[in-house]
Amino acid sequence: MPKHFSGELLLAVLLAAAGGYVLVRTPAIVVPPSAAVAGPRLFPYLVGGLLVLIAVLLAVQVLRGRAAPPEEGEDVDPSRRTDWRAMLVVIVLFAAHALLIEPIGWPLAATVLFAGTAAALGARRWPVILVSSFALAIGLWAVFVFGLGAYLPGGPFQMWT
Amino acid sequence: MGSLDLLLDGFASALSAQNLLFAFIGVLLGTLVGVLPGIGPAMTVALLLPITFTVPPAAALIMFAGIYYGGMYGGSTTSILLNTPGESASVVTALEGNKMAKAGRGAQALATAALGSFVAGTIGTLLLSLVAVPVATWATSLTSADYFALTALAFCTVAAMLGNSPLRGVASLAVGLYLGLIGIDKITGQSRFAMGIDELNRGIPVVIAAVGLFAVGESIYVASRLRHGPVNVIPVSRTWGLPKADLKRSWKPWLRGTFIGFPIGAVPAGGADVTTFLSYATEKKLAGKRGNEFGKGAIEGVAGPEAANNAAAAGVLVPLLTLGLPTSATAAVMLAAFTSYGIQPGPLLFDTKPELVWALIASLYLGNVLLLVLNLPLAGVWVKLLRIPRPYLYGGILLCASLGAFASSQSVAGLLVLVVIGALGFAMRRYGWPIAPAVLGLILGPVAEENLRKALQISQGDAGALLSSTFSKIMFTLALLAIFLPLILRRRTRSD
Lengths: 161, 496
Prior knowledge:
The complex is a heterodimer of chains A (161) and B (496). Chain A is mainly alpha-helical and 161 residues long. In chain A, helix 1 packs antiparallel against helix 2, helix 3 packs antiparallel against helix 4 and helix 4 runs antiparallel to helix 5. Chain B has one domain. Chain B has a two-stranded antiparallel ribbon with strand order 1-2. In chain B, strand 1 and strand 2 form a beta hairpin. In chain B, helix 5 packs across helix 9. In chain B, 62% of the residues are buried. The interface between A and B is large, with 84 and 85 residues.
């Protein structure tokens, strides 16, 4: 048994849950007579089976304490413990940004995302953060709306378009 | 010779002011995102997909191809000057390249990478122009069973060969296959496994999945364990060329890398990453008395893999253009660009749109020249980019991820799906699951399903039909080799 609980078990449980969901829902797929042979249920059964099989094998490996090293990267310090706070802040910010696009427009919602992420990752000089994030957001918005003809809700800046 | 005339016409079109400008923008952007960590060519192409509404097809596709090639060039700079790579295809370059830079030979490492990329990219493009038409002609005779065999080979190689743990590679592939199941079944038109969420009824777009797993996942992962303090970029002098002694040691690895990279890129076998590992292993084995330099900064270990990944990028375009089969994330997003113009890559593309394809191929030759010209003198500029403070860099990456996803899907719910997939990408990285198999599973899963079902319907459910042609037999044999060869090799090295 491992000395401490590995979060990878959660991933194995998720895999098993996805596999279980696929296997349970597959019989509900309608099979038209034209597709009686090799119909729309075949592949889901294969994938569902694979998911459950892998989940079991993975759980066994994890419980035996055989883990793979976390991915390396130039900005990643593998010796640090996971900073759950910074991570959650980034996820919540991104979701908030998505929900803000319609009400306050893309440029302001993007400013929130950029400034918030920079601050969460350790930037401290607020004037720099705010000015650079707003400039970047409005600049990108202008390039995409005027240059590429894409649609991005402008919010208060919609009148410029 | 018909192809040659068409290629010359292609050059005429690629050399027009507009196309040349887009090629230039493409290679510049490509190198930029190749240098920067966390943001890669797949996401950049996704970000720019909206231009397909306003720009003619040739110009847009030329730019996207430039981004793809440029990304391969740029990744090497990061690998050499920081210890760790900008792109997954440059992981191997870091092994020797960074050691060279620490020993004060950074300029030579950058030069051999750039020149090797040029040589391999040019030969790769040449091979692409030679084989494309014959392959497309031959591809018209491929059956559904053959296509299924191709996808099966891709699944086996990518899952077995990447990462430390093959089981986690397969797990990642399974995640991708699951994500690919969600949405409308192409053959019967009904929605499957949407979990009652409207947004999922149409399926998860490749753009959302790729940007979520790569860019958002990477940003969350970095946020969770950011390396604080200054970025250690090794300073490097201006690079103009390669001293004769280094050239003598480099040219053979360039050529070997090219001929390892192109064929493996062309068969759907996991794209550029695998080829760099193979090239590195080959160079190490062939080094002879120089073998002890490996691990201390052997120039062969930079020259070979860098050539291999560029040749593989050219190789990946073969199945994309001739079979309509994308084998890397970038190729999949490029396929999305083709389809948004109503163009279907595949065996008929060379008949229906010859002027477009040949302009694209011609632009690749020009792109390689542009990249060489850009990279040798501009290395210093790229080095400055590597010093961008990380809080701002990752803020910008998330912003671009949101922009790309929203501009292409126009849906807030799509962004929420993006962040959920991003969280998944975080978890996978945290526990050492490779990301590439998931993306490949999502892209090729539906292709595999469609062809499996068609093949079985034609044969009235006889599974033997999947192995009926010589081609499918070869593909399945290779797939078995891809699974068992690494296992056998591992056992042997363990018993040594």
